[in-house]
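Predict structure. Chain length: 376.
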Amino acid sequence: MTVRTAPPFRYDHVGSLLRPDSLLACRDQWTAGEITLEELRVHEDACIKEVVKLQEECGLKAVTDGEFRRESFHVDFIGKIKNVSSSWDLQKAIKLGEDHTAGINKQMPYIPYINGKIDRPDGGIEIANYRYTRSLTDLPVKLTIPSPTMTHFRGGRDAIDKEAYPEMEEFFADLAQLYREELADLADAGCTYIQFDDTNLAYLCDPKMRENARQLGEDPNELPSTYAHLINESIKDRPDNMAVCVHMCRGNAKSQWFASGGYEPVADSLFNLTEVDGFFLEYDDERSGGFEPLRFVPKGKKMIVLGLVTTKRGELESKDELKRRIDEAAQYIDLDQLALSPQCGFSSNAIGNLVTVDDERAKFSLIREVAEEVWG
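Prediction complete.
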């Protein structure tokens, strides 16, 4: 097997980690106006320092800040874009996922509304956060940010001001430019590993979500190629040493989920048109379908990180079962193009999944051990 010295790594992780209770309490105090933003930041800094140490102790090849400065994996980032407002109800999002047969109610709990020409705030969005995390470790710091598609899919054309953007091509061009500028500043700060978190491409595997897109006036058969082009335009100026991956998820709030369906409807466009270095694919249960869509991955060009270890439950998967599933995937793609990770983060929203910090450590240890036994 090829020794991987650049991301994605043979054993990797998606990014978000369980917030300490003290951090959740501080965030509640800040929301209530009882402490200042500066006081919240001091506590965030201390907690991020500890969670970086945890990842180092687990032997991970890259670390994140655990998304400790965010309420949600995507809302905080998108909400900082100029002229974006939103309809957001976290409790509704959690409620929608409580039915594990899910999919009956496919409302979208968070919709960004574009009210004018979009732009980044002064100083960028994640630049200062990245610099702080990088100061804590010698390992590569992976920065996780919402995919540019997340600013479009849930509201569609009707959520984008027609005076500011009479043509959708203009909106997509400005959105891609915004991401290019953010990535350029991150590169200047030393960032070499970016992950786009994208639920939309996975949602397009679900018949009910596809129908939702049609109701918004979108063609679900065209969106994968549209989104591939948007992602490509967003990353086209990245430096050669910056790896970009896409993580696909069907919902993860409080150990719940929102969509089902295998990757077949999006696989050809996704794997062949999107010019990224790898894909983190959710594969922890039958909702994600089989490995057959991996036959579309170009040979030798892109990594597939199999999310075989669930973050929704604390029970550990067996090594034999994980190895069996890796073998199954290798029937459709070269084993050398595969890697292993959890299926998602442990805390996509601040509220976190129904697991413990000890569960996090055990899952990371399992992933590392299996990866070392499979790939050497």
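Summary: Residues 89-108 have pLDDT under 50 and may be disordered.
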